[in-house]
## 1
Amino acid sequence: MTEGRPGDYRILHEAALRDYLAGVPELAAALGGGPASWSVAEVGDGNLNLVFIVKGARGGIAVKQALPYVRLVGESWPLPLSRAHYEYLALSKQAELAPGLVPALLHHNEALALTVMELLEPHIIMRKGMVAGTQYPRFVDDITTFMARTLFFTSDLALPAAGKKEGIAAFAGNHALCKITEDLIFTDPYRIAEQNRWTSPQLDGLAAGLREDMDLHVAISRLKLKFLASPEALLHGDLHTGSIMVTDSQTRVIDPEFAFYGPMGFDIGAVIANLLMAYFASAGHERSPGERRAFEAWVLETVEKVWDGFSRKFLDLWRDGAAGDAYPVSLFPGEKGAARLEAERQAYMQRLFADTVGFAAAKTIRRIFGLAHNIDFELIEDPQKRAISEARAVRLARAMMVETGAFPAIADVTNAARKLRDWRQE
């Protein structure tokens, strides 16, 4: 349900939120009991929004409200409330294409920039579980299904040109969120920027090196151009282990407010980058030497399975359901044509893998030298250990971005990570 009138926006703190929910009959019924008995807790630990968990006698819900500014920075950085609208659109589309892999939508008020979703319990943010060394057996199958289906079915491989262009148009107004990505991921870490930060003084030299490395500047600029100019499919736009909630048996992707049409490798690379960062951070969370080796082996195995599983599922969809205007089957008749089309599919996936490698590198570097960092590294209390873990990740990321051709397969990425597990800078 979507409602609200322009000009109705106000920030809903606990009392106001309780009153609002009481006025929506289906939500009040889902909670049960009287509004005074509901527990309301603000639990948002992200960079942008308010997030509440509300529980009543009958059940619970999650409520997310966009703020008119970046929460991490404050009112000095205004941000349009329309991002809640794009998040709602993205969640709706993702629920259609990948059912059961996003939270159920219960209510949306566009004027209040407020969305109510099912309460995910006992799910936790995947990043927090990985910091603790937890393995998630369902994750690979679920995330590869989510990415393959949401990316394929919003691409030119599955859609007629008009349908694809309508999709692009529907999300074109989310440019303020895209601008954040364009600056914080593709530009700021490579120049002096007020909001940059890193583990100092340990990584001061690395930070200065980023600003002087022209090969890296060319590589990141090419990736930025791809991000700007390649609307290949509808992206989640911020698909990392902090935007995924998990249990041993379930995976739910949340927070697609950065959604837009862009290069597919950006989403896939984000997942792989965050797994690699968890791998490099793991040594800093050890209480005794070697205690997390089994977890680290699982992480690298997961990196490989994410790409392999995504690639297999994406290709299966392409072979079985390609109704889009790209690569029309009528141009590839007979056995000879089918063989040539299959060869082109493999070439397409190789190009997509190269994009994935580069974007994974970009996502890694921004989380170590940009504004918003990962708790994978941040919760390593000893700054020296943290800096060593981060330097290993940056060393791999730089190679992945500048020497992408040296990583023709996902095993080349994991092998390079394995070799850097105990590397120390001179």
Note: The chain has a mean pLDDT of 96.
## 2
Amino acid sequence: MQQSTDLEKQSMLHTAILGAQMLFVAFGALVLVPILTGLDPNVALFTAGIGTLVFQVVTKRQVPIFLASSFAFIAPIIYGVQTWGIPATMSGLFAAGMLYMVLSAMIKWRGRGIVDRYLPPIVVGPVIIVIGLTLAPVGINMALGKTGDGSAVLVAHNTALIISMVTLLATMLTTVFAKGLFKLIPILMGIVVGYIISMFYGLVNFDGVANAAWFALPKFTTPEFNLEAILFILPIAIAPAIEHIGDISAISGVTGKDFMKKPGLHRTLLGDGLATSTAALFGGPPNTTYSEVTGAVALTKSFNPVIMTWAAVFAIFLSFSGKTGALLATIPTPVMGGIMTLMFGAIAAVGMNTLVRARLDLSQSRNMIIIALVLVFGLGGMQFGLGEFTLKGIGLSAVLAIILNIVLPREKTEQA
């Protein structure tokens, strides 16, 4: 009996350690989103943990996956915070989670075919490209030592350029040459290297960390209803919702279990949506399934969903340390800019890959028109106004792609 108890304790300790490792893999990307968008990193840690637990409840703890900050929403959050403030932006993000739930109900009702019909690669691919390229100026400005909008210089140009490019190089080398677990944390490695270089230039000040409390409540923010913010952000949720399907396919392949059937795509999408809406209730960024953690699951063969429960618990625990947020606040702007130049380009590349994998023929006028107009309208500044509401940017791209895909007739070769 004593031996059995000892084995259970060892098993629990081993599972907890694996959970901490999964959070370590996700940490760099998790905190990058709130740092870029002006949200509280501690809140993001808290909502990542809560969101993962919500997902596990909905899916009956069958899927070994971790949910945290979504990159797809960076641009709309930045715009929303600057235009309407954090509480109003949260109402839009809450609505985005609700859209996931609507898609979940549609899939439950009509099957996955409804997604393939109305949100095929020709719709999703160009929108993802717009998301990535819309963010490009923010990354470049910060890499040059400026604020994201370029309105103010925070670090001297030459110094910022050295730090950002060394950070970028470290991230690239980790991505290409690292082995094992290190290959899964290129963002974190880039931050560490850039941070060390920044210290030599005297850009890191630890006074805030020393003065911060060990225990402190995250700066929670509750949503305030804002129709304009909701209508602006809602269409943007389409791309990450479709990305969710790819992530569930990936984790299914890694574990050898078809999570599309059990617990079902409708349940996983519902869990993702509830996690996103729950995050918005506390002032956190939208949640999404993390491919980095899926890679770690594949590498370590750690298929037990309880591991993700531990990762969620550790995230919540860290969120209540004032020193965690204070330490993250010391990361210099050029460090973040160096990473973003690669990350935002990578988002656009994912959109291109979506089109390539679908083997879309751009010589067909229908495909060419959809892609061309989505890119030009989304990146060129086209906007349509209706009263106080203006549809533009990523939201306009998503709506336009869906409408064009519905109304433009398919060519005979495509129908066949």
Note: The CA atoms of residues 137 and 289 lie 26 Å apart.
## 3
Amino acid sequence: MTPPAAPPLTTPVTADLLRGALDTERTGRGLLPHRLPARARAQNTDGQLALAESQPSGVRLAFRTAATVVELDTVPVKRVYAGAPARPDGIYELLVDGRPAGRAGATGGDTLTIDPATGATAHRTGPPATLRFAGLPGRMKDVEIWLPHDETAELSVLRTDAPVTPAPDRGRRVWAHHGSSISQGSGAAGPTGTWPALAASLGGVELVNLGLGGGALLDPFTARALRDTPADLISLKLGINLVNTDLMRLRAFGPAVHGFLDTIREGHPATPLLVVSPLLCPIHEDTPGPTAFDTAALSAGKLRFRAAGDPAERASGKLTLTVIREELARIVRQRAAEDPYLYHLDGRELYGEADAAGLPLPDALHPDADTHRRIGERFAALAFAEGGPFGPGGAPGDRVRPAGQRRPV
């Protein structure tokens, strides 16, 4: 079959067409969106974090056009874990005036092979891919292409059959969220199916997603990125990565959280700031990290995790999710005496024991698509509803509340 003719108008992908990215990098093959600014990236030495921040979770192309056909040239980076099943292609989702209108995966591109046992990587260059969305309504409309939440993509050009202009500012509040791979979207069905994207849609806000797989580690450069990002609402989901990596002890954790919050408050002294403790994760509730691959599962071609710490080590200051929840609640309670815009939410309100019974974590660490939806809907109901910290009235509700003073209404 003869492929359809390419639409005649070409528009280079530029930063003014992007939403949700904190920085962009011009490469030899296109524009690479970044979710951390250049200064933060220069201070980072962790390859896992570098990979995660380059995966454009929550980043979308946003433009206005009367085009009926839209093509996007992109160079995806496919991750391959040695010994594990092949990962599906990253998903690009098309929205027209806020409604789903198409989705596609990009074949081809580069390949990054990772050895789970050693962490060694190998990068192979591949050809670009072209995504095509046809049959769009011929009227003037707002179009968004949400980029994959778990696959790096260098964007080259848009091709359309009508002119393209950047989408206008809709005047919606901006919500900046920071968290782990769960916040980035691991296990979600697509970029609009991550729990922050779902919550943002329900809450009617513009999302800046700083969910960083393996990278919610209280890094000062991440706090500075949040400090310097224009935002009307900020949330932090902290804890699981600190246990995964066995990065610090209780003595260091408390001061590190205080420092992280202090830095954010330098740029956002009166912005509603919600601290969310970890979701339920049975393997690490009372067992410290590090988290390890389940080698027996890998031998069977499955990716699964296990807790490699010893529960007795909690006495020496090792962190578990139970310890972290207690400490985060204490810190917010202490600070809220002087910060009426600071709020706390126990992550088990979003995913707890009853949820785990019906929707267990498939790999013992990350939720699936249905669980992402449940978490997103609950977060929206708790945070964005009337009486929630991000809601119209801004007053605390029964389950999402400040640990000290009530916020002025």
Note: The two ends are 63 Å apart (CA to CA).
## 4
Amino acid sequence: MMTMTTTGRTPAGPPGPSAGRGRSRTIAGVPVPLTVGAEEEYLLVDPVSRAVSAAGAEVVAEAAGELGDRVGPELTRYQVEVRTDAHISLAEFAEQVRSTRATVARAAARHGLRIISSGTPVLGQATPPPLTGSPRYARSAAMFRSLDDEQSACACHIHVGVPDLATAVQVSNHLRPWIPVLIALTGNSPYWAGRDTGYASWRTTTWGRWPVAGPPPFFESLSHFEDLVAGFIATGTVMDRGGLYWDIRPSHHVPTLEFRFADATTTPGETVLLAGILRALTALALEAIAADEPAFRPGPEMLRAACWRAARHGLAGQGIDLATGGLSPAVGQVDQLLSRLRPALLGHGDIGLVHTLWSLQRAQGNGAERQRAAHRTRGSLTDVVDHLIDSA
């Protein structure tokens, strides 16, 4: 994993002040611009059958010649995981996301395969998947049994740099209310092993089955966080800190806050859009913390309901407005979020790139909508896979 930052701001109330352009400026003691990075997970597919292929180890070994330890295996042998470096420049981050995907695609092609970036497999026997041979994954399979059977699921994890665990926990509190709209933005897993699930993000639904997953709790203090984690480990609920699968979590080995709610994004541009939004949100959260502003605290039941609705309908439907308790178009919620983020986007120099990428996605729909559009042309799931191959 790498260093990245994300942040949340309350859905109600005025936006915070600008993050500022100065390289020497700090927010709550944190230098800005904030660093950002990503982990991306890809699926390997056969270009003839379009089914997933269990060649993860071979493709990782091939790609490692160029990427070194920035490429590695995932839980199943259908998957490959890559990591970026920590970046201050969003444009340089974008270039590394693109070049890394291209490197893995070439490595897969040398084994007669292709990569797709989708939250779930479209075709092939996804359950139970062939697991990667490692002591950790063997321990996971023994501990969680059939939970591992539906984890041929791929995510895009964004990391934003924060100075310490105490700050990460506070930023998490401020970001929680924004999780649903960001799930809607990034939904990209409508199909599961040959059928339409009816969800924009089926991965969100399956991932929520883990014992410590979904929106994180509101942490009353750092000690509250530490006590919860210690309890989970002591009771065998998780194997270790790496098993905290909350949508937002402090990284267990680098000084970042990790955002885990997003499906693997169809295109590199969508990863860059998400990273720019999360960095700006983090900056606003840091300003709120410095000003002693309390985080908006929706009830856990309604927050969970909002996440479910976002996963079900995605960007094409209506989402729950946690500030009012009513429904409003998900696209409009993203527009409102970007309006609120304008000062922080300007401060990081990201506003042009982020608005260009959002305009493109707003016109085309999220990944789930584009997968379904590919299917509608001829009613063929192979067309969906070909669309994902061409887009990666």
Note: The chain is about 45% helix and 15% strand.
